[in-house]
């Protein structure tokens, strides 16, 4: 069994030296256990937080431990009554080829699964994050202007497309002309602005002539600076992620602008609400699964993946994710399906 462990904690952006590939003999299942073969491993921005020991909403990965992560795996040996060899399962095996499990936390997806990797993206955690955050916190209404950054990733692309289904004018923000073209031509956004453009703030203002009613926050930093002055009275801001800050080692230089933020929140009566999707795995998950399956089948939601072959490529691919190197949901194909 090959596994990638956290070798040491990163200072700033993660580097290859923070990871180590180890090998160990394949474990054998005891009675009540099963052996899982990871087929797809999800790489997600939150993993940067797990590499650091700063206080957060969950415990960090310890030095020498296997990096955590969601997987879609196949049962290759079973001594558990509820699982058969060949079943697909949604697991949390982390960055490794195999995992011994007693079934805790597993979801059995059955032997016949059309798009196994979608369970890590549009039909899984990132898709549910978009659905819950936009509909329940963002409360979008027809005719309103919705802005979302990281617009071609699994969360942002889904947010924007649900916004179009609701009837919003949707403006994306993405890194580079190719991603922006994709958001408009393929995903059906009304506009998409390149956050690397020199006149990004002016372009964003021009694309939002009626201001912004819902800003789904994925990135923070300079993008948020450009959004804040455009927010309308009673705008809603679901705070989902701040990926531009995850590698930061200190607060940015300059005057303290928290007073400006709070005065804007007051006079514009803003609703700014952070959320962690782990808190919401309740009844809304059923609504999500029903709606998203129907939207995908009807072609109303499109989904793009970037699949990287080989567990050993995971560190490099993950480093790229934090800088926009991915185009679509980043997934590692760990084993054959
Ligand atoms: P993505 O696949 O969209 O990857 C992150 C993207 O962020 C990059 O591709 C890049 O896109 C963009 N980005 C990186 N750095 C910057 C920067 N400095 N300025 C602007 N954009 C930047 O990831 P996900 O869709 O999986 O996640 C999106 C966000 O949602 C993340 O912040 C993540 O942490 C958060 N999240 C939160 C959850 C929760 O429970 N609250 C659950 C799941 C995700 P580009 O090239 O277009 O700039």
Polypeptide structure, described:
Helices cover 26% and strands 24% of the residues. The protein is globular. The chain has helices at residues 47-50, 125-138, 154-166, 177-185, 200-207, 221-227, 258-267, 283-297, 314-321, and strands at residues 2-6, 19-23, 34-42, 71-78, 88-91, 98-101, 107-110, 145-149, 169-174, 191-194, 212-216, 231-239, 271-274, 305-309, 329-333. It folds into two domains: 2-120 and 304-333, Medium-chain alcohol dehydrogenases, catalytic domain (Quinone Oxidoreductase, Chain A, domain 1, Alpha-Beta Complex), CATH 3.90.180.10; 125-278, Rossmann fold. Strands 3, 4, 5, 6, 7, 14 and 15 form a seven-stranded mixed beta sheet that branches. A six-stranded parallel beta sheet has the order 10-9-8-11-12-13, sandwiched between helices. A two-stranded antiparallel sheet has the order 1-2. With 337 residues, the chain is of the alpha/beta class. The protein has nine helices and 15 strands. The site of NADPH dihydro-nicotinamide-adenine-dinucleotide phosphate has 32 residues, from helix 2, helix 3 and helix 6.
């Amino acid at each position: 069994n090959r596994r990638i462990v956290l070798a040491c904690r990163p200072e700033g952006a993660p580097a290859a030296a923070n990871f180590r590939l180890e090998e160990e003999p394949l474990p054998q299942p005891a009675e009540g256990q099963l052996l899982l073969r990871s087929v797809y491993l999800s790489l997600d921005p939150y993993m940067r937080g797990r590499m650091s020991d700063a206080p957060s909403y969950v415990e960090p990965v310890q030095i020498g431990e296997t990096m955590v992560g969601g997987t879609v795996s196949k049962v290759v040996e079973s001594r558990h009554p509820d699982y058969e060899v060949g079943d697909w399962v949604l697991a949390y095996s982390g960055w490794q080829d195999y995992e011994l499990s007693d079934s805790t936390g597993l979801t059995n997806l059955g032997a016949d699964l059309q798009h196994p990797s979608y369970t890590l993206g549009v039909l899984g955690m990132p898709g549910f994050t978009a659905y819950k955050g936009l509909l329940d916190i963002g409360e979008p209404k027809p005719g309103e202007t919705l802005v979302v950054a990281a617009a071609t990733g699994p969360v942002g692309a889904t947010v924007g497309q649900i916004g179009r289904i609701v009837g919003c004018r949707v403006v994306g923000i993405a890194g580079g002309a190719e991603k922006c073209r994709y958001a408009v031509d393929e995903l059906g956004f009304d506009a998409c602005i390149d956050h690397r453009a020199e006149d990004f703030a002016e372009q964003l203002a021009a694309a939002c002539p009626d201001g912004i009613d819902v800003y789904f926050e994925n990135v923070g930093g300079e993008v948020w600076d450009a959004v804040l002055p455009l927010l309308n009275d009673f705008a809603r801001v679901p705070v989902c992620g701040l990926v531009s800050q995850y590698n930061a080692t200190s607060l940015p230089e300059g005057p303290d602008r928290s007073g400006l933020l709070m005065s804007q929140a007051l006079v514009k009566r803003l609703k700014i609400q952070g959320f962690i999707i782990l808190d919401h795995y309740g009844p809304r998950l059923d609504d999500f699964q029903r709606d998203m399956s129907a939207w995908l089948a009807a072609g109303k939601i499109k989904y793009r993946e970037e699949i990287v072959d080989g567990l050993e490529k995971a560190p490099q691919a993950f480093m790229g994710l934090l800088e926009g190197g991915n185009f679509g949901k980043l997934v590692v194909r760990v084993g054959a399906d």
